[in-house]
Amino acid sequence: MRTKMKQNTIEKKISEEKESKENTFKRIVNWFISNLKFLFIPFSRYETLVEKEYDYEKTISKRLFIRRLKSPLTMIGILIVFSIVTIAVFQDWLTLYPREWFINQVYSGAFDPPSAKYPLGQTDLGYDVFSRLIFGARTSLTIALPAILFSVVFGVIIGIIAAYYSGPLDAIIMRIMDIMMAFPALILAMVLINIFGQKMEYIMLAYGLLGIPFYARLIRGSVLQAKSLPYVDSARVAGASNLRIMFRHILPNVIQPIIISFTFDIGGIILSLAGLSFLGFHDPTLIEWGFDINKAAGRIADAPWASFWPGIMIVITVLGFMLVGDGLRDALDPRLKNL
């Protein structure tokens, strides 16, 4: 019995070894046959490897984007913008006096220097300079953000339609945009505000209308290049409508310049708003940095604090948005992806 059992075990081992050798040989042959294309067909790719490579490149791309945003200047810009937005949102908790304190009131101490009660001094009507700086942050963002959003939305729609359909429609739309861009922006804004009235809604509308030609031309150039690419032809062959092709396929691939310009232009609108307010074109019910500079312009020698601090707030706010825009440009610019 023992000898038979030994013989059976030996035979099993021999058969298992033969099977394993046969399976190994089959695996080698199958692998060789399945990978013949790598030997005879140029540019053949292994699907699993392609998927892993795509996932890896996607992760690397995200890391590069975040790394470029972590540059010192961009981080300073983000910190400045975050601080300005925080001041604008929580202004009632940060000011020394309520907003009603500045409406149709006159107090003693015109252009008085800084003191314990007024840390940054007083204005021509005795208002607290520090509190007006806080309230001015919300005014600047309240006008700049809706105005730039208005410009972007309508400018992108007009520009993408003109570029996609081309022909006479493109020529007519672009000539209208050229006419609008031919007028000096500040003067045209003053004219529009004089026509409609010096209210916050009309000031936002004026800046919104003035920004449409720029975004229309910016998106038009990108769409003219993108609409001839293969993925657009594939979408058209698949039966996608023109609206779907324009806003679902083309727009996401050409939106990077719009994002960059959007950030830059927020600072530009805040600066233009300060210029308008300095010239006297402002909403009397709002607290604006440019208007405070206008009121203190004649007292720079003996009361510099009344115009200095509003000017500093304008510079810091515009600088913050410019730094963020510059960081986004470096992160989103495809020409810098290998740096």
What is the fold's blueprint, element by element?
Blueprint: H1 2-34, H2 36-40, H3 47-69, H4 72-89, H5 91-94, H6 129-165, H7 167-182, H8 185-196, H9 200-226, H10 230-237, H11 242-250, H12 256-278, H13 289-296, H14 305-332
Helix pairs in contact: 3-14, 4-6, 4-14, 6-7, 6-9, 6-12, 6-14, 7-9, 8-9, 9-12, 10-11, 12-13, 12-14, 13-14
What is the fold named in CATH at topology level of the largest domain?
MetI-like fold
CATH superfamily annotation of the largest domain: MetI-like
Q: In angstroms, what is the radius of gyration? A: 33 Å
Net shape: elongated
Biggest sheet features: none
Q: Detail the poorly predicted runs.
A: none
Helicity range = over 70%
Number of separate helices? 14
- Top CATH class of the largest domain: Mainly Alpha
Q: Give the terminus-to-terminus CA distance.
A: 77 Å
| CATH level-two architecture of the largest domain | Orthogonal Bundle
Number of domains: 2
Structural class determined from secondary elements:
mainly alpha
Overall residue-averaged pLDDT value? 80
The count of strands amounts to: 0
Order of SSEs: HHHHHHHHHHHHHH
In percent, how much strand structure appears in the residues? Answer: under 5%
